[in-house]
Amino acid sequence: MTPLLEVSGLRAGYGQINVLWDVDLTVEEGKTTVIVGPNGAGKTTLLRTLMGLVYASAGSMTLHGQTLKGGKTWDIVERGMVMIPEGRMVFPDMSVLDNLMMGAYPRAGRADWETRLERVFAMFPRLKERRGQMAGLMSGGEAQMLAMGRGLMENPQVLLIDEPSLGLAPVIVDEIFTILADLKAQGLTIVLVEQNTSRALHLADHVYLMRSGKTILSQPAAEVDLGHLHDLYFARDGGSAAVG
Amino acid sequence: MKHRMVVLVALVLAYGAVPLLLGSMDYVMSLIIAALTIGGVALAWALLGNLGGLVSFGHAAFFGVGAYTSAILVVDHHWPVLLAMVAGGVGAAVASVATMPALRLRGPYFALAILAYGHIFRILAVEATSLTGGAAGMLSIPGFPTLLGINLASKTGAYALILTIVLLFAWLYGLIRRSTYGLALRAMHDSELATRVVGVPSTHLKAAMLVISAFMTGVVGAFNAHQINFLDPEYAFASSWTVLPIAAAIFGGYRTVWGPVLGALVVFLVDQLVFKELMPSGHQLVFGVLLGGMVILGPHGLLPLLGRWSKKEASHAGA
């Protein structure tokens, strides 16, 4: 069976500056793939390249066996891959409800938006309570839930989530990870970028470690040795990149 | 219900009371017609500037292209004036397609790029002598016909025509704003990147707004050409067709549907009837101070400011 999402030899960057160097990534349907790595490793750039927000200069990336290269972000969303961006990117001057409605913007989502909205509200009761509030007035945790709710309004097959725990209190992080575990249990394919390694590992089926724009480790989660992972993470491996 | 009553009263006043009371005063009627002309462009500008978040300095280009398209069709090809006016809008919309590369730019860069486009169209109008008459312009452009027994060429008729055009545009604007597209455009104002992430084809949407805005501006430009029966490139592409609507939209409150129209009426009429009387030369200075004061006191414009005051009054009355 072909993997749902497959990336090989991917190069991408911003103008003259290349960030990703021959990145390989395989995401199996229904699995949670976790990408960890220090700041500046290219994790966010990888997700943005997948979404067509950053230009891919070389390599291939396919979703359901069909290429993603050159695709427009909005078309990729319609094809079932949705990103919950780093820093939430909610629309601050719009109400919570309008933010969620934006998630139902793609044509496929318009017909049954009510069902989708009910499902999101069931998952995030706080969003239901605050649906009339301006999104810009929410706390970081609420904004993260809103960003996730908005992403789920798209009814994704693959959900790319970029550092959902960034800047949040531990109790909120717990809540976010509980919801991610629920989504995983429902069979959703998840690609999670996280700096919170130990939390992310609990959820993962497969783990990638990125450093300096390369994937230097690819291992089933069950085989990952946290100590070894942290050594690679902090470059305590003497500089030789070990590919697992 | 209350809202409907307000609209109904306003319509009766606009179509009935204004012509009945002021119809015999030619000068005042021409001023009101000119104010509504600016209001129509202001509305078109606000559609792009508010909903699309694109501040354009180039609407004079669409105004001029609309004016010339309609005038040429009527003079050289004997089209009926009202049909040619619609074609003027289409002409401006086609011209806007040429300006689309500017959509790749943001903020002030877009504003300046589209300003440059505006000048290109003015130069074209000067150079294409066989088509436009060049710098000498076009004289005796036919005026409006008589429709359903109303002589649209009269001051009252022209007033009714531009009023109808502006009302139709306001209705269209309101329709777009309430739609899913309006929601997406509002989101784009906050962050275009985020709208892409949620699956909005933001480039297409901006392009569509540019075309609609250019169409509206072109129709108003065509109206103006048949109203004053004369065109030359300096006049048809004058920067005031960009600047006055922007001032009107900001003054009136460009985030509302009626703000630009109200702004145009207030700004233009007060300037012409009051300040010009008091200060025959340099009256624009007073107007500049007024606009500056407005930006400081009520950055969202006159209409939201009035709304706030009336709410305050109501809460005082209730207490």
TrEMBL record, chain A:
A GO biological process of this protein is: L-amino acid transport
**What are the ABC transporter domain coordinates in residue numbering?**
5-237
GO MF entries: ATP binding; ATP hydrolysis activity; branched-chain amino acid transmembrane transporter activity
Q: Which SMART domains does the record cross-reference, listed alphabetically?
A: AAA
Q: Which SUPFAM superfamilies match?
A: P-loop containing nucleoside triphosphate hydrolases
Has the keyword DNA damage been applied to this entry? no
Which InterPro entries does the UniProt record give?
A: AAA+_ATPase, ABC_transporter-like_ATP-bd, ABC_transporter-like_CS, BCAA_Transport_ATP-bd_LivF, P-loop_NTPase
The cross-references to Pfam families, in alphabetical order and at most eight, read: ABC_tran
Keywords tagged on the record: Amino-acid transport, ATP-binding, Nucleotide-binding, Transport
Instruction: Reply yes or no: does the keyword Disulfide bond apply.
Output: no
The record ties this protein, via PANTHER family, to: HIGH-AFFINITY BRANCHED-CHAIN AMINO ACID TRANSPORT ATP-BINDING PROTEIN LIVF
Q: Which family does it belong to?
A: Belongs to the ABC transporter superfamily.
- What is the name of the protein in this document? Amino acid/amide ABC transporter ATP-binding protein 2, HAAT family
UniProt source species? Insolitispirillum peregrinum
